[in-house]
């Protein structure tokens, strides 16, 4: 989505605007959220960050402690004004990770149920429209099957069709692809992106999977401990993470420190030489593991940063291996399996990790917590 299109989406009168404070024993979610009509926003975060609380609150299953939720011109929740629209009266379509299809109903009648319950259609009209939605979702000829007779991908499409058929004004997706195998997930992910693009309603996707978020969403928000720690387009979040959690999620090394005179003194100890001598004050430094070179002898040359330490872990993935070096601070390097064999690396092997100053991405830290 372009900057202009994104701005129009956020300003659209049919969008979602929420200022939320939800208190639970030992936990508080406090955040602002705007999702424009036609915009897909993915919420990421570790367990206990507040993602489920956010989704349940928007669905009408948890009331606000304070704040206000509006969908277009409709107020859904406003404790100060004593307004609360219950879940069964909200124009919201929800898809859960375990689908929650009615096991005793056919695929056609599962989709038709939403049309009858939400739009008040008679049974025949609902079944006719349900057939059209099944065709649209690539499920032609499967209308008579019950959920137990469907594959995971087919069941997920039925759940999506049931949620979207009544044309909800807000769509909430709770880990919608989590129960699918890898091949089915790839197929449904692409299908979901295309379907949501045509919907025109604000969409909130809650997920643990960064690939789901990066490929389906226009914008990402990252929750940690009940607060939004990062909000931006997928490419921006992936390139410039602002917390250790986000850095792990996108596979980057991330360090915090104070920049001055062409170097950064890191908060965890050690320092980095920079190519940019104008950087000043609190900064974050992101390092791609693929740019980290490993040596069994200390390398020399400029403009390199060199840290020494033992190999603390080896994690193979595909044709590469992620090597963690217990330097100060620690660092991850991605090398080929051939390089691993040539270097004869194993747990405890002393190595030197070298990073070129030009391979460092340095940006202002702002007020976001981070650290390794």
Find the CATH topology of the largest domain.
Rossmann fold
Taking the sheet with the most strands, its summary is: 6 strands, mixed
Number of helical regions: 10
CATH class of the largest domain equals Alpha Beta
Beta fraction of the residues? 25-35%
**Number of separate strands:** 21
| Cα distance spanning the termini | 32 Å
Shape: elongated
Helix content: 25-40%
Lateral strand order in the biggest sheet:
7-8-9-3-10-11
Number of domains: 2
Compute the gyration radius: what is it? 24 Å
Low-confidence stretches: 1-12, 368-372
Mean pLDDT: 89
Let me know the CATH homologous superfamily of the largest domain.
Answer: P-loop containing nucleotide triphosphate hydrolases
Structural class: alpha+beta
Q: Mind telling me which CATH architecture of the largest domain this is?
A: 3-Layer(aba) Sandwich
What descriptive keywords fit this protein?
disordered C terminus; alpha+beta; five-stranded antiparallel sheet; 2 domains; 372 residues; six-stranded mixed sheet; OB fold (Dihydrolipoamide Acetyltransferase, E2P); elongated; Rossmann fold
Characterize this entry briefly.
The chain is built from 10 helices and 21 strands. With 372 residues, the chain is of the alpha+beta class.
What would you say this structure looks like, in words?
The protein has 372 residues and is an alpha+beta fold. The protein folds into two domains: 3-239, Rossmann fold, CATH 3.40.50; 244-364, Beta Barrel (OB fold (Dihydrolipoamide Acetyltransferase, E2P)). 27% of the residues lie in helices and 33% in strands. It has helices at residues 3-11, 51-59, 107-119, 123-136, 152-164, 182-197, 210-216, 234-239, 244-250, 337-343, and strands at residues 16-24, 27-35, 40-44, 66-71, 74-78, 83-84, 92-95, 170-174, 203-206, 219-224, 227-232, 253-260, 263-266, 271-273, 281-287, 293-295, 304-317, 320-325, 331-336, 350-356, 361-364. Helix 3 runs parallel beside helix 5 (152-164). Mean pLDDT is 89; it is low at 1-12 and 368-372.
């Amino acid at each position: 989505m372009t900057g202009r299109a994104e701005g129009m989406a956020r300003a659209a009168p049919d969008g979602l605007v929420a200022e939320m404070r939800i208190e639970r024993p030992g936990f508080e979610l406090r955040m602002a959220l705007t999702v424009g009509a036609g915009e897909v926003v993915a919420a990421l975060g570790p367990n206990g960050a507040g993602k489920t609380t956010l989704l349940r609150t928007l669905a009408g299953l948890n009331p606000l402690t304070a704040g206000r939720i509006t969908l277009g011109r409709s107020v859904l929740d406003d404790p100060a004004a004593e307004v609360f629209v219950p879940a069964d009266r909200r124009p919201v379509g929800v898809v859960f990770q375990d689908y929650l299809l009615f096991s005793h109903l056919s695929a056609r009648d599962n989709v038709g149920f939403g049309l009858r319950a939400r739009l008040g259609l008679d049974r025949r009209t609902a079944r006719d429209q349900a057939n059209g939605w099944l065709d649209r979702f690539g499920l032609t000829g499967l209308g008579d099957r019950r959920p137990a007779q469907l594959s995971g991908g087919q069941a997920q499409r039925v759940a999506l069709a049931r949620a979207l058929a009544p044309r909800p004004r807000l769509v909430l997706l709770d880990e919608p692809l989590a129960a699918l195998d890898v091949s089915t997930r790839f197929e449904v992910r692409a299908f979901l992106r295309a379907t949501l693009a045509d919907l025109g309603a604000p969409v909130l996707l809650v997920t643990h999977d960064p690939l789901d978020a990066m490929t389906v969403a226009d914008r990402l928000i990252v929750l940690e401990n009940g607060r939004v720690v990062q909000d931006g387009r997928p490419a921006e979040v992936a390139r410039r993470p602002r917390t250790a959690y986000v850095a792990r999620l996108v596979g980057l090394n991330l360090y915090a420190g104070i920049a001055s005179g062409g170097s950064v003194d890191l908060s965890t100890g050690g320092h980095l030489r920079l190519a940019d001598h104008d950087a000043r004050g609190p900064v974050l430094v992101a390092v791609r593991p693929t740019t980290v070179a490993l040596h069994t002898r200390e390398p020399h040359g400029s403009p390199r940063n060199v840290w020494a330490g033992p190999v603390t872990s080896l994690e193979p993935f595909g044709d590469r291996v992620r090597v963690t070096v217990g330097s100060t601070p620690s660092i991850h390097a991605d090398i080929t399996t051939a390089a691993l064999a040539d270097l004869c690396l194993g747990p405890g092997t002393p190595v030197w990790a070298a990073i070129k100053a030009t391979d460092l991405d340095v940006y202002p830290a702002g007020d976001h917590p981070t650290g390794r």
